[in-house]
Amino acid sequence: MTTATARAHPNIALVKYWGKRDEQLMLPAAGSLSLTLDAYATTTTVSLDASAAEDRFTLGGTTATAGQTEQVVRFLDLVRARADSSAHAVVDSHNEAPTGAGLASSASGFAALAVAAAAAYDLDLDRADLSRLARRGSGSATRSLVAGLGIWHAGDDDASSFAEPIEGPEMSMIIVTVDPGQKKVSSREGMRRTAATSPYYPGWVDSTARSLEEMSAACRAGDFTRVGEITESNALRMHAAIEACEPPIRYLRSASVAVFDAVEQLRARSIEAYATADAGPNVVVIARPADAAAVADHLAGHGDVRIVGAGPGAHLITTEESA
Ligand code: PMV
What we know:
By secondary structure, the protein is an alpha+beta fold. It has 2 domains: 2-168 and 315-321, 2-Layer Sandwich (Ribosomal Protein S5, domain 2), CATH 3.30.230; 172-308, 2-Layer Sandwich (Alpha-Beta Plaits), CATH 3.30.70.890. It contains 8 helices and 16 strands. It has a 6-stranded mixed β-sheet. A hairpin with a 4-residue loop joins strand 3 and strand 4 (27-28). The chain is globular and about 65 Å long. Bound molecules: (3R)-3-hydroxy-3-methyl-5-(phosphonooxy)pentanoic acid. (3R)-3-hydroxy-3-methyl-5-(phosphonooxy)pentanoic acid is lined by residues 13, 16-18, 32, 104, 106-107, 138-140, 187-188, 278-279.
């Protein structure tokens, strides 16, 4: 029996992924770019069990829901097909993020699962291959294979859609949790509805492809200001496209908008900070590391505030063979 343990961190996109052009292969409508964090890791152990009749999945020490287990089984099926194996597995996963911290545990979760499962089933995959594999579990997981800043090339087939590192300015992220509750509409459903009903969806996809080019150039030039400006406008464009759905979806609440206002106040005082938000009410602010503490102080009244930085890509911790 082979057992492998891997660890991965979530990432926050500066140019967002929102919409698929191929649901089966999980190819995105446009590329995206993110920072992998140094906090809130997921640690996952995959143990093959040749005598088991089915896969088992525990999350935080308790049996996962049927829906969560189904996603993991579907992912393991892909790995088994590649490894030409029929062995079932026991998957045990632990998230360091407090439940409802507003951080996508799907990114760290599927990145850690991809690395641990590939090792347990003895697949010889490089980092780009693992990024492609993680993509099949959750789009944002594609980027958690990369340390620090990573660009996910949209690609036009399985082989060309993966993430790789990109140089950029140093930055901190200030995570402002305004509402620790679960989001009401999943990103999967939100993306489907935006693509199907938002009149702004084509504009979102076109402008994101352009923003990604501009963002890559700003990163390579080490231009923090331009990186921040593109980050904030890309996030607001995503939410504008989402809010124009039918029936509408609003992930941002008034408390979220108040953080965007507070960030604008900081800029008026010459502290450069820029806000972004994923498919939920919590806001992530980017700042130069030297300004992070001042930004966090200014935002303290808006919710739980935590400063994080760039972290490692998903990696294997141990593999073990036992009888
Ligand atoms: O792949 P998912 O289901 O975690 O979707 C990610 C969607 C956003 O977090 C809103 C954007 C992104 O690029 O991470």
